[in-house]
Amino acid sequence: MAESGAAAPGTGRPVAERVGLHSVDRLGPFQIIRRLGSGGSAEVFLARGPTPSGEAELALKLILPHLADDGGHRAMLLREARMVMPLRHPNIVEIYDVGEVDGRTWLAMEYLSGWPFHTFLKGLRDQSLTLSLSEAAHLVREAALGLHHAHEATDEHGQPLGIVHRDVSPHNLMVSRDGHVKVVDFGLARATHTAATQTGGLKGKLRYMPPEQLRSEPLDRRADVFALGAILWDLALGQPLHPGPTEADIFQQALFLPQPHPDEVAPGLPRAFVDVLQRAVAREADRRFASALALADALVPFIHPDAAAAVARLGECLQPSPAPERRPTREEVIDWDAPPAEPPRVAPSRSQLPHVRRATRPSGSAPPVLPHPQAHDSRPRT
Which of 24, 72, 242, 244 is the most buried (most CB within 10 A)? Predict the structure, then answer.
């Protein structure tokens, strides 16, 4: 743990001064409740402060203290705010405001009660639970609807902005406790009508990038369609589209090796679903769905009306024990390298959740997909 008198890396200034908090539980108009998590350039706190509907809990995103003077990270956060604040859609996290206090740039946004998508999936795997085809299609469809809204955004003159998220992955989606999905973190997004060009290498999750992004070529909305397809592949087939353990392996699989056929990985999927999946992850952008909305529409036949409720029931198994209300310690606020504390998770017994499926597959095998009978397509593949 960093001490309050220690110097922040690369600054020569005390950590307490770099944090910019007048006390351990306040930042400007926000009361800090606890830290939710941190990444390579920012950390997120649960806080209470002003929102469009009045004083309420919100998520407060802050550039990490040792990067506060980095103009690139500050510009990224401000660009995210300008891009996302005008967007209003049930499948996109709402951003309320952006500002700066004592040298720390902050972004106030909607607090989502639920799980990051990758945490949700890991929790299911840890408890040997599986998603049905209906639930997988539902989750990806909702993300697609949110992204389509962003893709269609226009400026004040009605001109398309051409927003491309460019980092769609399980780390940038949230699953709410009522079984719905929201797209988060537009930090790497770009409006294609601008002249800005990014240098300095690839940023984002390589496993979900389309070939043109790996080749650093210009991108359009179909790059996000590919990423959605790669997530769907992961959910439905039980393994990543590009499962290589290293970046070099992922590049080799994505650009040079033949793309596997879904039937080779998970035999027995409905023929119509395989067609949708292959079109979504086509290596050539012209062969993909032209929009995220087109992909969302193609997934409708596979989604049962109670899919959201089914996802919510699965989420009940991941419900953590209630954490006592407390203020963060000085070390938690100051030490940006410390991992966020997680309360112990207690899964309900099977008798409490008889409707939840438990996997019975052998250890190490791919999880089965359980399509709803009405969604099955028994037509032979030609």
Answer: 242
Q: 165: burial class by Cβ within 10 Å (0-12, 13-18, 19+)?
A: buried
Give the residues across from 104 on adjacent strands.
101
Distances (CA, A) of 341 to 34, 63, 309, 338: 9, 20, 29, 9
CA angle 273, 240, 274 (to 5 degrees): 10
**Rounded Cα distance, 318 and 122, in Å:** 10
Q: Residues with Cβ < 8 Å from 217, sequence gap 6 or more?
A: none
Report the distance separating Cα 231 and Cα 75, nearest Å.
29
Check if the beta carbon of residue 45 is closer than 8 Å to that of residue 35.
Answer: yes
pLDDT by residue (tens digit) across 263-302? 999 999 999 999 999 999 999 999 999 999 999 999 999 9
Give me 144's structure tokens.
């697609």
Q: Is 220 a catalytic residue?
A: no
**Residue 207 identity:** R
**Secondary structure (H, E, C), 162-191:** CEECCCCCHHHEEEECCCCEEECCCCCCEE
Q: Which of 70, 167, 185, 377 is catalytic?
A: 167
